[in-house]
Specification:
The chain is mainly α. The protein has 15 helices and no strands.
Length: about 350
């Protein structure tokens, strides 16, 4: 059996496994919690306004993510139009959420930016760092939210869960930067192909970025704006379904923890995982479990609706889909980049 067949079978198995995990988690939640699906639809002008605001925030998050990607490209010496990056992002969103394939949205982004610039290796590195910059901001948001509201620091499992998510994320980032950041590991990683190749991309990117502190600051500021607009999207969506106990400071502390958890490769689009995390965090605020699950489903629906806007870019944006199949032979690309969770997470 050739390597292509093995990889295809493995990818199909993982896709089916993740579908099963999402279905199992949702069934478990629906059996335990009586969700009133009517609350998912705005029933008055006020609720509709909040839902529209949440949708605008989700769209805005993709715009800001494109600006963040632009900053990374500029720092690493690639020139790309922000409008092109936006539509590459939109095409990637559609691909990740609607197409049952081993090709992920981030793989498509690498392929299309590589075609635009003629530099696929650096394009790959920009996507790695665009994602990593988001992970750098998420723990800071959790700590800030907990610092701003003392009541959030004494909520038992919810507080512990948020802190664990932040600390584990920081430790993982520290390990990645330590492993990839020094010259000895750079020389060692340069010898390897496969999954370790993305660490070598991090090493090369760090070499460039450590000489450009101002541009790194711009990337982190843009990343903070991105995460902030996602927090706002969750808060507006909560308002639209009548969750009044979920204030902005609580959203600042707990939404990043939900975003961290939902990108774990346990399900499809974070389904089930996100809803379970919201039950944990919002339950500590006396939000009924059925409303917490409903909030997760609303966020997923907004993500899916937004992703539909990426279909024209996927179809008419060039040969990126066909080019991306070349990357399947290097399975590291998908495993390193794509979590199939849409934009929400990093």
């Amino acid at each position: 059996m050739d390597s292509w067949s093995v990889m295809t079978r493995r990818s199909t198995f993982m896709l089916l496994l993740r579908l099963g995990v999402s279905a199992g988690l949702l069934i478990f939640l629906f059996v335990r919690i009586d969700v009133d699906f009517d609350i998912l639809w705005p029933d008055d002008a006020g609720a509709t306004a909040w839902m529209v605001a949440a949708f605008v925030c989700v769209i805005s998050s993709i715009v800001i993510a494109s600006l963040r990607w632009k900053q990374v490209c500029r720092a690493l010496g690639l020139e790309a139009a922000t409008s092109r990056l936006f539509w590459h992002n939109m095409a990637g969103q559609f691909l990740s959420n609607f197409v049952p394939t081993t090709i992920g949205g981030d793989v498509l982004r690498v392929s299309r930016l590589g075609r635009d610039t003629g530099d696929r290796p650096t394009s790959f590195t920009t996507v790695i760092f665009e994602r990593l910059s988001g992970w750098m901001v998420l723990p800071a948001s959790i700590f800030l939210g907990l610092a701003l509201d003392p009541n959030l620091r004494d909520l038992g499992a919810a507080t512990r869960g948020a802190l664990i998510a932040a600390i584990v994320t920081l430790l993982a980032l520290g390990v990645i930067i330590f492993a990839a950041g020094n010259d000895a590991s750079g020389r060692l990683l340069d010898r390897y192909e496969g999954p370790l190749r993305w660490l070598h991309a991090v090493h090369e990117g760090l070499d460039v970025l450590r000489t450009k502190p101002r541009q790194v600051l711009r990337i982190l500021v843009t990343g903070a704006m991105y995460q902030g607009i996602l927090v706002l999207a969750f808060w507006c969506a909560a308002k639209s379904i009548g969750i009044d106990e979920f204030g902005l400071r609580a959203a600042l502390a707990f939404v990043p923890a939900v975003l961290i958890v939902q990108v774990l490769p346990l399900g499809i689009g974070g389904l089930g995982v996100r809803e379970g995390a919201l039950v944990l965090f919002l339950g500590s605020l006396d939000v009924p479990d059925e409303q917490s699950v409903a909030l997760g489903l609303v966020i997923y629906a907004l993500t899916i609706t937004t992703s539909l806007l990426g279909l024209p870019s996927l179809v008419f944006g060039g040969r990126g889909f066909d080019d991306a199949t070349e990357d399947e032979h290097d399975g590291f690309v998908e495993s390193a980049l794509d979590t199939r969770s849409g934009p929400h997470g990093t």
